[in-house]
Design a protein that fits this description.
This protein is α+β, with helices and mostly antiparallel strands. Strand 6 and strand 7 form a beta hairpin. Helix 3 runs antiparallel to helix 4. The N and C termini lie far apart (53 Å).
Length: 283
């Protein structure tokens, strides 16, 4: 029997966590969401070294290697998807901590974007920096996508500015060799469209779940889903009161402008269907 490669790779698991969480939310499959939760918990608890840095792999119960950019960026994306599927703020907090490490330990010293290795990685003759997407997206394009997402939750325009600079530096190669920059092009499309923010207010109940299902069963690649919370870390979630008499409410916002909240799944569907709800036909 051929040998089996049974190591756990953080970046691959980050992508899988995102897939399971999104599928579970869209298909109302609690078992898929639970699988994502189990994987995320295992990585957060087992895949960090003594300093709290991500490791690259886990094999036979032992964490090995030092995490690289794609590990941090892919796991951040998975944790955000898990937060959206569960409304458990701990996953967004974990994602935020990873995003801070990316911005502090991976940035290119004399240019835009990020190195593939951190400044606490083992010393290398040259720090690699891969920008092209292949069968798996590059760490830099994953990081760019992650910055747009976390920038929306944190209300941090500096994150979007970073992404604009990264995309500008790759404008020519993206145009000349689009098949080598697939994930980058999706980030560009998202930036041009603008991120819409959907925040659900109210306690966990059938009405809020029904409104979440309205969002989950649509294709909304340019929207970030959140749940109202008094959080100084995530301004997107703050100041979203529940209207009097309502069991749940949905706030749709973009560029620091929010529409009046709606309180039923049908009203939310109509609101999301309005492509120019903010007076911009590109949305």
């Amino acid at each position: 029997r051929p040998g089996t490669d049974d190591k756990v790779v953080v970046s691959w698991n980050g992508m899988m966590i995102a897939a399971l969480a999104e599928a579970g939310m869209a298909l109302d499959r609690s078992d898929l969401v639970e699988a994502a939760r189990t994987a995320a918990g295992m990585i957060i608890e087992s895949e960090k070294d003594a300093e709290g840095h991500l490791c690259r792999t886990l094999k036979a119960g032992q964490a090995r290697g030092t995490g690289v950019l794609e590990d941090y960026a892919a796991l951040t994306g998975g944790l955000v998807s898990l937060y959206q599927a569960t409304a458990e703020l701990r996953w967004l907090d974990e994602a935020n901590a990873l995003a801070d490490v990316v911005r502090s330990a991976f940035p290119h010293e004399s240019g835009v974007g990020f190195y593939d290795t951190s400044d606490f990685h083992d010393d290398l003759v040259v720090r690699p920096r891969d920008l092209q997407d292949g069968a798996i997206a590059s760490g830099n394009s994953l990081a760019a996508d992650m910055l747009l997402t976390m920038g929306a939750y944190r209300g941090a325009t500096a994150f979007e500015d970073d992404v604009r600079r990264m995309l500008a530096s790759l404008a020519r190669p993206m145009a000349e060799h689009p098949t080598a920059f697939g994930r980058w092009l999706s980030v560009l499309e998202r930036l041009l469209a603008g991120t819409r923010e959907l925040v659900l207010a109210g306690p966990a109940n059938d009405q809020r779940d029904a409104m979440r299902s309205v969002f989950a069963q649509r294709y909304e690649p340019f929207a970030a889903l959140g749940y109202a919370a008094d959080s100084p870390t995530f301004p997107m979630l703050a100041d979203r009161p529940l209207p009097e008499g309502a069991e749940a409410a949905a706030y749709l916002c973009q560029n620091f402008t929010c529409l009046a909240p709606v309180t039923t799944p049908d009203d939310l569907t109509r609101l999301l269907d309005q492509r120019n709800a903010f007076g911009d036909d590109s949305v």
